[in-house]
Amino acid sequence: METTSGKGAGDIPSAAQHAQVSYAIFRVGRLHRMFAGRLLSELGLHPRQAVVMRNLWERGALRQVDLGELVGSDAATMTRTVRRLERAGLVRRVPSPTDKRSVIVEPAAASLALRRKVEAARSDLEHRLTDGLGEAARAEMLAVLERLERNLVHQVGNAADLVCGGDPCD
C-alpha cells in the first residue's frame, strides 16, 4: 500500500489523501473497538452484550422488542443475545403481565458486580485513549467530535439509524 509519509501510525494511503479526517476516524474507531472488545472479553462479554446490559442497568426491565430497538438489533439477533446473557446468569426473561406475546428482560442481581467491572473497563479505556491530553485538549476534542456527529446526523436525517442505545452500532 502506497503511503504519503514514512512509517508510523500517521501514514495515509494515497487513496485516502482527499479523506484524511475520515481515514483518521476509521483508524481510531477500529482500534477503539478492538481494545474495548478485548477489555470486555476479559469480563466474558461481547461488545453488543455490554450495550444490552448497559441499557438494562440504566433503564431497568424492558420489553425485549424495545431493547432490540434501543440497541439497533433485529428480533432474531436480540433473542440470541438475551438467551446467551440469560445462560450466563446476567438477565432474566419473564412473560409480560400485560401482553402475552411480549417478554420482559431484566438485569439479574448477579449482574451488578459485573456492572462495576464494565464501568471500570470503560474508565480504563477512556484513560488510555486520552493519555497525555490535558483538560483543554480533551474538551476541544470532545467538541470537535460532537460537531462531526451533528454534521453526519444532519446529512442522514435520522440519528436513530446511527446510534444504538447511546453506543455506536456494530
TrEMBL record:
The UniProt record lists the HTH marR-type domain at 18-150
The alphabetized list of GO BP terms reads: response to stress
Task: Give a GO molecular function annotation for the protein.
Answer: DNA-binding transcription factor activity
SUPFAM superfamilies tied to this protein: Winged helix' DNA-binding domain (SSF46785)
Record's Pfam families? Answer: MarR (PF01047)
Q: Which InterPro entries match?
A: HTH_MarR-typ (IPR000835), MarR/SlyA-like (IPR039422), WH-like_DNA-bd_sf (IPR036388), WH_DNA-bd_sf (IPR036390)
Q: Can you say what this protein is called? A: Transcriptional regulator
Organism, as annotated:
Streptomyces diastatochromogenes
